[in-house]
Amino acid sequence: MKFDRLLPPLLAFAALAAFVAGRPAAAADLKRAQEIVEGKCFICHGAEGESSSPIFPRLAGQNAAYLARQLADYASGKRKSPAMQPMVEGLTKADFDALGAWFEKREVHLHPVEDTELAQVGRYIYNRGNPFSGVPSCASCHGPTAQGSATLPRLAGQHAAYTERQLKLFNQRERTNDNAVMHSIASKLSELETKAVASYLSGLK
Questions:
Q1: Cα–Cα distance, 104 to 204 (Å, whole number)
Q2: CA dihedral (119, 125, 126, 127) positive or negative
Q3: Contact predicate 80/171, CB 8 Å
Q4: pLDDT 10s per residue in the chain (205 long)?
Q5: pTM of the model
Q6: d(C-alpha 177, C-alpha 197), whole Å
Q7: What's the rounded Cα separation, in Å, for the pair 99 and 32?
Q8: Partners of 129 in the β-ladder
């Protein structure tokens, strides 16, 4: 039998073996992540990433790679937080990756919007920006449903107060670990626009 006839079955077997070999490791990583969540994260972010306090972000459904990078930035001091620095102390990059994957898999819930009229203003700004002041559309980077990407956060369903706070930190140049473009964008947002966008995003899923 010719070798080229054996190649496809061999490749298929190799792929299956790699898949099977990776499954226990993936399961172990998620188990490790759950242990960390139950030991540390749940205090502020909730057992399933659905933080009940607007001070702390909801992490359920957050993009894994983005979340892992934020944790690494807290550990290195690139992103400042007196509350988070002690939480990531002693954790490894593998832990950050596992936590990202774990939170990404948590169920995302739909949350009611407190001020629906304000949210409608935010809907306009998010989707179309403000051409009169030079504010670009948020959707052009974060996506039409605010799901983000591996490098940009998922904003859908986030606490309005938390989103508003982050926008203000970008405006004040106190948050510098992320895309510098956000400094310029946040500085152009009025108080009304900041609150409106945050309100709109809180009601997305």
A1: 16
A2: positive
A3: no
A4: 444 554 444 444 444 444 434 445 588 799 999 999 999 999 999 999 999 999 999 999 999 999 999 999 999 999 999 999 999 999 999 999 999 999 999 999 999 999 999 999 999 999 999 999 999 999 999 999 999 999 999 999 999 999 999 999 999 999 999 888 999 999 999 999 999 999 999 999 9
A5: 0.86
A6: 22
A7: 8
A8: none
